[in-house]
Amino acid sequence: MTTAQNAALSESRFANDRLRPVRIWLYGMAAFVLLMVIVGGITRLTESGLSITSWKPISGTLPPLNAAQWQAEFDAYKQIPQYQVNNSWMSLDDFKYIFFWEYLHRLLGRVLGVLFAIPFVVFLIQKRFTPQLALPLFALFILGGFQGLLGWWMVSSGLTELTSVSQYRLAAHLTAASLLFIALIYVPRSLEPGRVTGLVTGQNLTSAMILLVLIIMQIGAGAFVAGLDAGMGYNTWPLMDGALVPDGLGVMQPLWRNLFENNLTVQFIHRTIAYLITAYVAVLLWQQHATGGFKGVHGWLPRLAILVLLQVVLGIMTLLHSVPISLAVGHQALAFMLAGVTIAYIADMHRARRLR
Question: Cα–Cα distance between 76 and 94 in angstroms, integer?
């Protein structure tokens, strides 16, 4: 086949690829979720998440537009424990700063819903996807809406007794966001046209799935660290409180509370999972190098290893510098990117086995 014929064939396949706009849309939605995670991280680190004390899905789209509305929002904030215990020094201008981040985070959530719903309907009318694909896509929309409900459930935990949101609800909110992000990567990646090369075994798939589970667990563990401000203490590495395994990991009773409420234990768990992921990826690299190399689909593995090393370095720097916003938000965003690369690897392995 001549070069011209090859080009014509590629152009024909490109023109007949009716799912290409759908894939671009879903990748765009994944990027938007990542943006929301970044803004959510800033919202948490600036302690802005409780600045809006009510949930108004429609009317809340507009921010306060005059002095009276701003004062009403500020007065509502003054009724919650966070203001009374921690922020009674705040002026209205100080309040406007934390209000901005929470408002932006909620606004992005509303925009995400619109950016999902309208193209979904358009693509459905255009018959760009089958009813079999429409159902999981609609499920993604429901998962996004559920994420909004989880967000309000999280905020409501800090309006009556706590001075911040519950770390349990924060972990649920962030973990659900990671699952939505993963799904928004997996679906379009699994719809990519063309052949995927490389020998894929059941062990390859199982190993990658275990890695993905570990990453999701680490994201949840990181949420507990953030929810307890556990990263603000024990800012040394590799020793923690002067030891590799510090004393005091089980001081709370019953014992299980230490896993979620003891700052020392929560940070130790987060560190330990990071070591486990690093060692596990190193083993995967060694096994793949010994058995088949990194051609084709397994080219994802070296990229995963690089991201893991970057994440470890960023995590250590975040800890040593007592959690500055820039490093902490980058650390959280990179965790999601690592999960995204892992699910792309899994999707490509599924495609390789399906097309074999």
Answer: 15
Contacts of 143 (CB under 8 A, 6+ apart): 176, 179, 180, 183
User: Tell me, what's the pLDDT at 356?
Assistant: 62
Q: Is 270 annotated as a binding residue?
A: yes
Separation in Å, CA 344 to CA 46, 211, 338, 348: 33, 13, 10, 6
**Spatial CB neighbours of 209, under 8 Å, sequence gap ≥ 6:** 346
Nearest to 176 by CA among 294, 324, 40, 28: 40
Q: Collect all residues with Cβ–Cβ distance below 8 Å to 175 and sequence separation of at least 6.
A: 216, 219, 220, 223
User: Mapped to the 3 state alphabet, what secondary structure does 135-162 carry?
Assistant: HHHHHHHHHHHHHHHHHHHHHHCCCCCC
Residue by residue, DSSP assigns 69-93 as: HHHHHHHHHTTSHIIIII-TT--HH
Mean per-residue pLDDT pooled into runs of 10, the chain (356 residues) = 40 62 95 97 95 89 94 96 95 96 95 94 89 87 90 93 93 96 96 88 96 98 96 94 94 96 97 98 95 91 96 97 96 97 96 78
Q: Tokens representing 63? A: 């921010």
Domains of the chain: which residue ranges?
15-193, 195-356
Q: Distance between CA 212 and CA 244 in Å, rounded?
A: 26
Q: What is the pLDDT of residue 277?
A: 98
- Give just the sign of the alpha carbon dihedral 241, 242, 244, 250: negative
| Total residues belonging to the chain | 356
Non-local (6+) Cβ contacts of 133 within 8 A are 191
pLDDT at residue 188, as a whole number: 94
331 is an annotated ligand-binding site residue:
yes
In the numeric block, which tokens belong to residue 275? 């070591």
DSSP string spanning 32-43?
HHHHHHHHHHHH
Beta bridge partners of 243: 240
